[in-house]
Amino acid sequence: MTELKHTFKTDILFKLLFTKHPKLLKHLVAQLLRIPLESIEYFQIKNPEMPPEIMGKKFCRLDIHMTVNGQHVNLEVQVENEGDYPERALFHWARIYTNALHKGENYSDLPRAIVISILAFTLFKDCKEFYSEFQAREVTRNTRLTDKMALYFFELTKLPEHIQKDDLLLLWLALFKADTVEEMKRIEETGVPEMSEAVNAYNNVTTSAEFQEIERMLVKASHDEAQALHHARLQEGKRWQKKIAKKDAVIADKDAAIADKDAAIADKDAAIADKDAAIIAKDAEIEALRKKLVEAQSGEAT
Predict the structure, then answer these.
(1) For labeling, which of 32, 62, 97, 145 is most exposed (least CB within 10 Å)?
(2) Which residues of 66-82 are buried (b: 16+ CB within 10 A; e: fewer)?
(3) CA dihedral defined by 144, 147, 151, 154, rounded to 10 degrees?
């Protein structure tokens, strides 16, 4: 098996490929939304640009925001489970939904907002289905509050092993899941036109000067980040060394002060011991005189 250097899950490739080939994106979205392709009368990519300033940013999101028949649809591929993904998806839905309301418009003017997540990890461990859809519904009556909210999750880890060539949704998802040249070739060899077009688009984009320049920028950004982190660690190490040396000096001063106090206490203890010895000697002297006095008085009496 020959691993692909880039896959459909690669965020830069995903964004560049589908914004350069909107027809393919339209086919993909129709399958993800489970609607007939011919039912899509209006289709527009709202964020086709890929600003250079986001290149190399660790937590940038290269999603695709579209308008599909008046609905706002956001599509994102997520490779790693960084935690709290349901909350993240809900946050993105809320942002898309609220940003769609312009000044002077009524709440009723808000369009339906859908967030679609293609996940390369297992999010819902308690179910076997690869597809999950969430809406706002009443928990006991199952009555839908509104049709303007929907979150779609497609978990690539749960795809069936054998996929029929007439199942376009699964073929698209298998293309995203493919990590090797052989896997992608098998999908292309199904003879499904959309799959052949997608693989050709993949080859065209990955060999394009634009993609290679983006790759160069990413590699440079990665090196720059590594160098910056290395320099920051060195500077932080030096700062800690200075802090430790300063604390050590303070501790040494305190130890010296304690030693001086211990010496003073020892001198006082010695002085007290001398006084105690003198008191004992005087007590002995007084006792001896008392005995002599008693003996003298006894002699006089006889």
Answers:
(1) 145
(2) bebeebbbbbbbbeeee
(3) 90
Mean pLDDT, all residues of the chain: 89
CA atoms lying within 13 Å on the CB side of residue 265: 6
Give 90-96's long-range contacts (Cβ < 8 A, gap of 24+). Answer: 90/115, 90/151, 92/63, 93/149, 93/151, 96/65, 96/72
Task: Output phi, psi for 152, to 5 deg.
Answer: -110, 135
Provide the terminal-to-terminal Cα distance of the chain, rounded to the nearest Å.
129
Under the banding of pLDDT at 50, 70 and 90, the label for residue 58 is: very low
Per-residue pLDDT at 26 exceeds 80: yes
217 by Cβ neighbours in 10 Å (0-12 / 13-18 / 19+) ranks as: middle
Phi, psi angle pair for 151, to nearest 5°: -125, 120
- Cα 224 from chain centre: 21
**Strand 113-119 to 149-155 pairing:** parallel
- Reported as a pLDDT band with limits 50, 70 and 90, residue 59 is very low
**pTM listed for this prediction:** 0.72
pLDDT in tens, 162-193: 899 899 999 999 999 999 999 999 999 999 99
Cβ proximity of 89 and 115 under 8 Å:
yes
39 alpha carbon, distance to own chain's centre: 38
The number of CA neighbours under 13 Å toward the Cβ of 298 is: 6
Residue length of the chain: 302
Predicted local confidence at residue 27, as pLDDT: 97
**160 C-beta neighbours (distance < 10 Å), count:** 10
Lowest mean pLDDT among 11-15, 40-44, 114-118, 120-124: 11-15
Structure tokens at 12: 């830069």
Could you give the CA distance from residue 21 to residue 205 in angstroms, rounded to a whole number?
Answer: 10
